[in-house]
Every structure is written in C-alpha cells, then in structure tokens.
C-alpha cells in the first residue's frame, strides 16, 4: 500500500483517512496495539511514525528509528491476540527518516488492550456486538465458511510456487489454462477485483507458509528421558514447507529415534518402540484436521523414552467427541484433505505405511493408530481434548532386551 515514495507523499498531503494514520512519535504500547489491530480488523492500512497530525514530516533520529521498529514488532507479538503480521519500512525524505508500518487486512479478528477495535474513517472505535459477530462470521472464526478456502491477505498469483502447484494441474496445460485451473482448484480465490491465494493454496504450494500464517509448521523435540527437560533434549527441529513435506520430515524424525530392540530365540526377533504406520496416520490427521485459524500455536511433536505426544491446535470439529473418534469422521479442512488425497507417498515410505496417497479418506486412520500401537506396546493410545487443543499420546513398546539390574 502506497509503495512509491511519491504516492506516499501525496497521501500525506491529503491527510489521515481510513487507510492511513500519522504519529509524530512512537505512542504508548497499548495505544499502538489498538491502532494496529483496528487496521487489521478493517481493510488494512499504514501507520507513519515521524509525521505529525498536520501531515508535516518531523522525522525520527536514527537511534529512535531502530528502537521504534523493534517496539512495533514486540507490540504486534505481545499485545495483540492473535498476533498481527505487519511489514515495516524505513524511509527518508528531505534528510528526515520515518517508519512506515503496513498492516494488511487480516484473516483473523484481533483483540488489543482496548478490546475488539476497527478503523472507521480517520479514527478507530470498539466494535458493537452485532458488528463483531458479522466480522467473526465473515472471517470464518464462526465456522460458517471453510477456513482453508479463505483469502490470505497480501498474496498474489505469484505467491504460489510453480514447482508445488504443478502437482495439482494436469500436464501440458497452457498458461491461460493454468490460471483458470488454479481458480477451479481453489488455490486462488477472488478478493474483490483481484485473485489471491487461499489458505489451502498457501499451505500446499509455498515453501514458507508460516511467513503468512503464523505457526503453520510442525515443531519436533526428542528428549532422553520422561519429562520436558532442556538438560536431556537431544534434538529439536522445526519442519516447514508444504504440508506434505512437513509430514514426511516429521515422519523421518520419529523414524530416526524409533529404537528397535532384538533378541535371539530360535531366530532373531525385533521390536520397534512405535508402529511407523500409526505414526504416519497420526501426523496426517494432525496436519489435515488442525485449526489453522488458531495462530497462537503450532503442531508439536514430543518424543520421550516411554511415549510420543502429538499436540494439534483446535478442538474436535463439529459434534465429534474423543470417545467417537474411531467411529466418526468430520473434516475441518475439506480442500486440504482433497489436495493431500491426490499426492503420492514416496515409494520406500509407502511400503512401510501400506498407503499410496497421503490421505485415502476411508476413515481408517484412528483405528490404525489405536490398533497397531496397542498391539505393539500393550497400551491403548490416549486422545484428550485439552482447552482448544487435541492431544494424542502413543506409548512406546518395551525393549526385548532384559533390564540390567543396577
């Protein structure tokens, strides 16, 4: 917004409106948080720090400029829920420097210290209940519209990486046909007069979707012990990229630390701690069913000496309960499920998990997780819904080696 300096100067001369706000200096944190959230809850806008109320560029000192930018980023992270994605730019005009803070229209509804606030004209105000309800509904946090088909602000057709989207487009399609097919596949969706990337399109066709959707990655940690203790942390990885790559990277992380014990009877008997088929199903379920509108947390995978824990943001969809998981089926992200069901698993893993596609949509996943894990360890995996997260615990099978007495 206002990308050229000449366009920005012209806008400054016209004064504040629903798209631009002037600040002579950095305001108090709560006030700044309200301004940013108000733009994010409306159509987006620009805050210029170093310009007074009359449109005069007064500038900031270089030290103040750096500190101001740091504070703005901290406010977006710490004072607004969920945190807001912004773009900052340091500008110079007639020897004076100022900070441009661009706030895109958000996918979410944000709460700041002043409440739920939206920009109206050149001012901001707290939204009345009916307006807030409509905004929650339109941005899919009321679950009326499928979130994975929503527009991702500040994206274009070129946000989609060709190497990834070609997987969903028939071979030999012309450039004009590709544009049409991307829209039909809902990888691109209309936003006013423009087409922008959908949430599903971003998650499947970009190498860093978390640049746009906070925490849309898998975090994995392996501990040598039974508790979360940094002193016993052996490995930690963040797996980013398209969702299918995240699944495979997390799968290989578990495979690396999935210990195999053996003993010799008549022949050699081996036992792994975890069924990799069950692990694959659990990872796919976590990725395809997580609530991507909840940007406060990522999918978390913890491995301990006696168990594996997988935590996915979002309560169970619709009326599905923990007790009915084996028998019920409810897809939160239908478009994501459809896209994953078209991608084949690499051959060596496909043989291990007895599955050709990432998602085969037969409703067998939870049953495989429960049955295979129970057969291996003798303990039934535990699903728990804790607040707005779904927790799965899979217990490790005991070693075939005899326990060494101290």
Automatic annotation (TrEMBL):
InterPro entries noted in UniProt = RecG_C_sf, Schlafen_AlbA_2_dom, Schlafen_AlbA_2_dom_sf
**Domain (Schlafen AlbA-2) ranges:** 16-127
Pfam families found in the cross-reference section = HATPase_c_4, SLFN_AlbA_2
The name on file for this protein is Transcriptional regulator
**Which Gene3D superfamilies does its entry note?**
3.30.565.60, Schlafen, AAA domain (3.30.950.30)
């Amino acid at each position: 917004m206002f990308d050229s300096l000449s366009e920005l100067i012209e806008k400054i001369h016209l004064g504040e409106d629903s798209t631009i706000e002037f600040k002579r200096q950095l305001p108090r944190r709560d006030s700044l948080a309200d301004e940013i959230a108000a733009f994010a809850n409306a159509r987006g806008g620009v805050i210029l720090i170093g310009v007074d109320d009359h449109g005069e560029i007064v500038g900031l000192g270089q030290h103040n400029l750096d500190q101001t930018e740091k504070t703005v980023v901290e406010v977006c992270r710490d004072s607004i829920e969920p945190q807001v994605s912004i773009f900052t730019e340091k500008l110079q005009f007639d020897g004076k420097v100022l900070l441009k803070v661009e706030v895109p229209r958000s996918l979410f509804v944000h709460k700041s210290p002043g409440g739920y606030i939206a920009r109206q004209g050149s001012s901001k105000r707290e939204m009345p209940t009916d307006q807030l309800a409509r905004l929650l509904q339109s941005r899919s946090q009321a679950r009326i519209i499928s979130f994975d088909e929503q527009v991702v602000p500040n994206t274009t057709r070129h946000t989609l990486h060709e190497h990834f989207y070609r997987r969903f487009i028939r071979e030999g399609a012309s450039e004009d046909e590709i544009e049409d097919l991307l829209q039909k596949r809902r990888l691109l969706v209309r936003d006013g007069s423009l087409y922008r990337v959908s949430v599903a399109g971003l998650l499947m066709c970009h190498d860093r979707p978390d640049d746009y959707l906070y925490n849309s990655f898998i975090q994995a940690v392996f501990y040598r012990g039974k508790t979360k203790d940094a002193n016993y942390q052996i490995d930690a990885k963040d797996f980013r990229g398209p969702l299918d790559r995240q699944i495979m990277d997390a799968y290989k992380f578990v495979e690396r630390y999935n210990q195999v014990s053996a003993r010799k009877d008549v022949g050699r008997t081996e036992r792994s701690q975890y069924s990799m088929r069950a692990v694959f199903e659990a990872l796919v379920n976590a990725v395809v069913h997580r609530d991507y509108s909840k940007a406060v947390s990522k999918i978390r995978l913890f491995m301990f000496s006696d168990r594996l824990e997988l935590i996915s943001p979002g309560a169970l969809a619709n009326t599905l309960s923990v007790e009915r998981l084996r028998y019920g089926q409810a897809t939160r992200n239908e478009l994501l499920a459809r896209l994953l069901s078209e991608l084949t698993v690499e051959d060596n893993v496909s043989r291990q998990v007895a599955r050709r596609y990432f998602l085969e949509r037969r409703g067998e996943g939870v049953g495989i997780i429960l049955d295979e894990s129970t057969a291996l360890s003798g303990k039934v995996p535990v699903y728990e819904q804790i607040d707005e997260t779904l927790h799965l615990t899979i217990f490790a099978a005991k070693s075939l080696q005899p326990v060494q007495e101290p």
